[in-house]
Amino acid sequence: MKCKEFWQQIEGLSDITPLPEELQRHIEICDTCNRQWQVLATGLKELKKEICCQEDPLFWANMKANIRKKIDKPKAWRSFFKQWRFWSFATATLAIALVIFGLFCTKDVVPTKQDIVEMFTGPPYLNIYDENDAIRGNSPANELEDPCIFAELTDSWASVLDDALTNTGGKS
Amino acid sequence: MALTDHDLITAYLNGDDRSFEILVDRYQHSLYYTVRSIIFDGEEAKEITQRAFVRAFNNLKRLKNKKNFRSWLFRIAINLTRDHIRKRKTHHSIKSWMTNGNNPTDMPEQAMLASEIKHYIKLALDSLPPRQRQVVTLRLLKGFSFKEIANLLEIKEESARSSFHFGIKRLKKQLSEMGIVP
After folding, report:
1. Is the pLDDT confidence value at A161 over 90?
2. A25 touching B, CB under 8 A?
3. Are A43 and B118 within 8 A, CB to CB?
4. Nearest CB partner across the interface for A39, out of B115, B117, B168
5. Which chain B residue lies closest to A47 (C-alpha atoms)?
6. In chain B, whose CA is at the least distance from the CA of A53?
7. What fold, for B5-88?
8. I need a labelling partner for B56 at 20 to 30 A (CA). Which of A71, A105, A157, B87 fits?
9. A48 at the B interface (CB within 8 A)?
10. Across A52-72, average pLDDT
11. pLDDT over 90 for what percent of chain B?
């Protein structure tokens, strides 16, 4: 057997020790292959020993715990988003945020107490509504369309403004 | 009767925590020692094994054929190992190592202990390209068949054989340059 053939056959072996008889005969007569083979076999045997050293049970338990810790992280987030509390809280927050945003868009300044009252009761002129209007068939909604009523409203607001300025010492 | 991987994965996806433990127990030993046979370092092998499990469990829903869990998990680990070898870039330059006064030919042959030989073999294996190193170590240290290696590395069986052939050739050359073998 030639040296090349020897190494080709070595490559075909799944387990390098012990050598088949035919290969064993070759290394007995070939010093170069023998020395190469001894070094390889010894080194690989030692390496095998090293990589196959048994780890203690704590090592495996620790590994499992680490894996779980790293996997549970995204899972916890997923379950948090699935909770009904999260969505009810998020919906309520969003609704409040929308109301505040709406107020800021319609008003130039932060709404006063009066503004908030008006939000629910409507502007003061809509309250000028007596039984005569009811007889005439006017509703608060169409009062503004009537020019006479609008003039009356303007006068009444002008007198209110006059009174306010007089009381505070201003000029009309 | 032992539960199959398919059953365990389905149970895990339905929130059964015990299935996770069984799956990890089933594969952590073999996966760890396979990775360790390629990179030799115990701590690094542990880290890669953990990362492979985490990646596999986080992507379990994407695994179409649940029966292939084992080979899928091993493939993830092997890919992580290859990336690790590439990143580490510790392909020791044998020549520079020799010039630092580490020539083993200076020592008497009898004095060279088995542990020293192991060190040189490790060094020579470290200098192989990642693919050759994977094939050589899986074959020589884990005793995997070429078919298994080809399946694991997603290459043809012939490619595994030729990688092994050139790997061994290179290994011998490196050892010869170190002066360990003639």
Report:
1. no
2. no
3. yes
4. B117
5. B118
6. B33
7. Rna Polymerase Sigma Factor; Chain: A (1.10.1740)
8. B87
9. yes
10. 85
11. 21
- Those residues whose C-beta lies under 8 Å from the C-beta of residue B90, and which sit 6 or more positions away, are B126
SS (H, E, C) A18-38: CCCHHHHHHHHHCHHHHHHHH
Q: Tell me if B57 and A51 make a contact (CB, 8 A cut-off).
A: no
| Burial of A47 (C-beta count, 10 Å sphere; 0-12/13-18/19+) | buried
Cα distance between residue A59 and residue A56, in whole Å: 5
For residue A61, give both structure tokens. Answer: 């338990």
Is the peptide bond prior to A18 cis by the omega test (within 30 degrees of 0)? yes
- Find where tokens 């057997």 sit: A1
For the segment B126-140, the average pLDDT, to the nearest whole number, is 88
Whether the pLDDT of residue B47 is over 70: the answer is yes
Residues 86-115 of chain A whose Cβ lies under 8 A from any Cβ of chain B: none
**For position B76, what pLDDT does the model report?**
92
Check CB contact of B21 with chain A, cutoff 8 Å.
yes
Write down the domain spans for chain B: 5-88, 104-177
**Is a pLDDT exceeding 50 seen at residue B93?**
no
Q: Which CATH class is domain B104-177?
A: mainly alpha
pLDDT in tens, A15-38: 666 778 888 888 888 888 888 888
Asked if B108 reaches chain A (Cβ–Cβ under 8 Å), the answer is no
pTM (2 d.p.): 0.61
